[in-house]
Amino acid sequence: MTRIALQLLLRRLLLAIPILLCVSALVFVILRLLPADPIAMSLPPGATPEDVERLKRDFGLDRPIPAQYLIWFGKLLTGDLGSSIFFRRGVGELVGKALPATLELVTAGLILGVATGLAGGLVMFSWRGGVREQALDFSTTVFMAIPEFLWAILLILTLGVAAPLLPFIGRLDPGIALPPAVTGFLLIDSVLSGRWSALGSALLHLVLPSVALAIGLAPLIMRVLRSSLLETILEDYIMQARLRGVSERRILLAHALKNAVLPTISLIGVQGGFMFGGTVLVEMIFAYPGLGNLMVDAVRNHDLPVIQAVALIYCILVLAINAVVDIAYLAANPKLRLA
After folding, report:
1. Could you give the CA distance from residue 335 to residue 332 in angstroms, rounded to a whole number?
2. Which of 81, 158, 162, 254 could disulfide-link 91, Cβ–Cβ 3.0 to 4.6 Å?
3. For the residues 262-280, what does the mean pLDDT come to?
């Protein structure tokens, strides 16, 4: 299992190289072809044409696009993501501060969405053929019909404003000091420094945005798992288990679920990648200082180095989550280990 998993990871790593090259080149060229001048947008109204030309030379924007790409890519190989045109700071520093917030948010959304989806799928299956299943099926359709950003607004209006139970702005209450940055992850740093008030505040601030993300994932998992279970229980080995007198509960949890969950794992891989994209609007609505918010600010100010870096980070995260899902699929499906 370990050897096959390592081989799979190596194949994914080799495949990721041309994908990242294509994505980086595509994003770089498209941004340069847009009819906007990032230098002019970052300067005050009184700036002279000489100031514009000087900054263009400083950022290398006066050179042909292929030369700009080669310079940027060469620096990227050394770990240098360049400097932000608008923020006047290193892009690596900006990404390093925003990335942990997005990873915490997506991890919480995935855990919540997967747990709710699996539990809901089992409930739907156990209620199959009845009115309760139809009602739950109708509810999942309604949940899927409403986009994530609208759920975010509804959650703020209901649980943040009408019944102020949960905070909905930022990652921490204004009166609570940030814990010392060790890992950059607020939850982990709060535990490491013993700042339990910061940990509680961070967890509360994480609830609404992670629920907004999870709502888009859970109904899909529920429906796929229910459909897969309905097919699996018709298999011969399930009938044989019933003839041996195995209880329905044991058949479901010990035999049917581990085979029926395979399509669900594939779905989680696809939707997990989409969830990173969904963080852009959700982070903006909740003023959550993650990669999504950074991307919106960069697009608004046409900050090319930041847009390039964040797009590349999103691509790496999607490839990483797909690799993790492939390993999980390999662990859950013995047939793949024999192939």
Report:
1. 9
2. 81
3. 83
Write out the two tokens for 109. 């959304």
The C-alpha atoms of residue 233 and residue 235 are separated, in whole angstroms, by 5
**pLDDT-based confidence at 336, cuts 50/70/90?**
low
Of residues 45 and 228, more confidence is placed in 228
Length of the chain measured in residues? 339
Grouping H, G, I as helix, E, B as strand and the rest as coil, residue 323 is helix
Percent pLDDT > 70 in the chain is 96
Query: Which residue is associated with the tokens 């949890």?
Result: 253
Any bridge partners for residue 145, and if so which? none
Among the listed residues 218, 215, 213, 219, the one whose alpha carbon sits nearest the alpha carbon of residue 281: 213
Nearest-angstrom CA–CA distance, 128 and 66: 59
The Cα angle at residue 36 between residues 35 and 37, in degrees rounded to 5: 135
